[in-house]
Amino acid sequence: MAEHRPRRSPAAGSPDAPGTTDGTDLITLGRRVRHARTSAGLTLDRLGEQVDTAPSLLSLIENGRREPKLSLLRSIATVLGLPLNDLLDPEPPSRRAALEIALDRAQRGPLFAGLGLPSVRPSQKLPTPVLEQLVGLHDELARRAEEAIATPEEARRANTELRLERQARDNYYPQFEHLAEDLVRDAGYTGGALTHRTVAVLAERLGFTILHVNDLPRSARSVTDLHNGRIYLPPASVPGGHGLRSLALQAIAHRVLEHERPRSYAEFLRQRVEITYFAAACLVPQFAAVPFLEDRKRERDLAVEDFRDAFGVTHEAAAMRLTNLATVRLGIPLHFLRVGDDGALFRGYENDGLRFPQDPTGAIEGQLVCRRWASREAFDRRDVATEYYQYTDTPTGTYWCSTQTGSGDTGAFSITVGVPYAHAKWFRGRDTRVRKMSTCPDPACCARPAPELARRWSGAAWPSARMHQQVLAALPRGAFPGVDDAEVYAFLDRHAPG
């Protein structure tokens, strides 16, 4: 068998690389500790006695599941007669250790979680040839998954990096907040909904005139004439909830934020994030929004629909704006989802620990969310005029969610804002009795067809898949790419004779 070379470990900070606060890879650190301990002929019990630490804690450290204190690492290094830097070396201590690390990391990733298979512990009893074969199989699975998303890979990776950046800063950009506040105050805004006239005044003060035309290019939402100081907009709101005020403010934002022509897809996406944030900060200025939200929180009556109506924006815009302000200004962690009626995640944000489905690159766009989540359960109710409330038990905790459904040219969609159970007390709808349980990413939760349906229809179904329209998403894999087997089998069973 040809020697297998495990792929290099992901960089610290990537979605698949757990690390210490100084960037050291925990799995590699643990294997170096284990390698040094066994080389010194010490058991976990013996080492634990000498460093005054429980063997169970040392085992967690060696398996990369607990970050050790620096003082404990120094004690371990002293007992083992090693410089501390030897334990912190980012390279695996041996080829065998490199294989163990590769297998451990592969089994912690989302690709393996979606297989629904038991993990194999890479213990010393596992023969090296078997370990090589397992790592080789995981590498090939990862290669094929990455190959399937090769075309939009640059965009997906850049989008994932932006999402993680927003998550790290609680989706709050103070520089845009202050800039937007100054501009709308200068244009005469004092509170309530930002009027079209105020937007026009803001544009005029920056040297632009807003014009509405019927013949915009199909691929453009707006066009700015820098030479003549004109911003061209459509005569009415475009599909998808983008109001004319938002379109005008986004066009203005490119000038205000001094954007240059993007030189890469990553730069293009960053500019989109910045202009969207700036427009939202103008439409719902912080100095007006925060007192409104604080009052509702004191009354334990926070509601996206009230926030939406108070500032005259769409439900989605209000929900997204809440992600900017809730954590930093109200102390509430939360998550946001826009999900299509097919279950595909169009846009998502979280800083409350909810685990979104993701592909091997860490991208979430186009991934199917659990059928038990409120964002999908809401499609099955008859009353779509009001928000739908639900508690959901998940592997990362219990969350309360508020969901509003809507429809556009691309079909029905849902907008969800959710918080951990402890923070539900601040929101209207917290008294709901609706409670669901989700065990995703375990495929037995909702991704697999019922066993009896699979036995009856596997091999007998031949659906024609709809074209997948999500630009950032790879085509979901399956017997028929883009087709949900569980839904197809259930459909066939409902219509089968007898």
Automatic annotation (TrEMBL):
Q: Where is this region: Disordered?
A: 1-25
Q: Which Gene3D superfamilies match?
A: lambda repressor-like DNA-binding domains (1.10.260.40)
Entry's InterPro entries?
Cro/C1-type_HTH, Lambda_DNA-bd_dom_sf, TransReg_Diox_bact_type
Q: SUPFAM superfamilies this protein is in? A: lambda repressor-like DNA-binding domains
Tell me the leader sequence span.
none
A UniProt-annotated Pfam family: HTH_31
Q: Which PROSITE patterns match?
A: HTH_CROC1
**Start and end of every HTH cro/C1-type domain?**
33-87
Q: Which UniProt keywords apply?
A: DNA-binding
> Which PANTHER family does this chain map to?
HTH-TYPE TRANSCRIPTIONAL REGULATOR (PTHR46797), METHYLPHOSPHONATE SYNTHASE (PTHR46797:SF1)
In its UniProt entry, what is this protein called? Helix-turn-helix domain-containing protein
State the species of origin: Myceligenerans salitolerans
